[in-house]
Amino acid sequence: MQLSKTEEQLMQHLWKLEKAFMKDLLNAFQDPKPATTTVATLLKRMTDKGFVAYKLYGKSREYYPLVKKKDYFSKHVNGLIKNFFNDSASQFASFFTQETDLSKNELEDLKKLIDNELKKK
Fold first, then answer.
1. HEC-encoded secondary structure of 46-88
2. Which DSSP helix (H) or strand (E) runs through 99?
3. Among candidates 2, 3, 43, which has minimal Cα distance to 20?
4. pLDDT, tens digit (0-9, with 9 covering 90-100), for 53-75
5. CA distances, 70 to each of 5, 45, 87 (Å)
6. How far apart are CA 121 and CA 116, in angstroms?
7. Low-confidence ranges of the chain (pLDDT < 50)
8. How far is residue 66's CA from residue 47's CA, in Å, rounded to a whole number?
């Protein structure tokens, strides 16, 4: 299952905060802040999708993520590779290195990362 763009934005705040009450989430947004009802609706949808849970303290809910940011991102990247690059990581890497504006230093850092992974295998 996937998050909408607005749900993803809210999830980014929740990942950063780790645990948050409604007021904490609202404070995390820049002005103009979304309406409380909007955030409540998004949290309800995200809870129903299994991305968020909460602990009840009286009438207040403390929300926390059920999905790790790394896991969510990894699933997206793997889906992107599968759907747009014929399930070929090398086609993705080729596109990424040629079509993005990476500096020579960034490319060298990327090469080091790949070399380190090759040593592990």
1. HHHCCCEEEEEECCEEEEEECCCHHHHHHHHHHHHHHHHCCCC
2. helix 89-99
3. 43
4. 999 999 999 999 999 999 999 88
5. 17, 21, 20
6. 9
7. none
8. 9
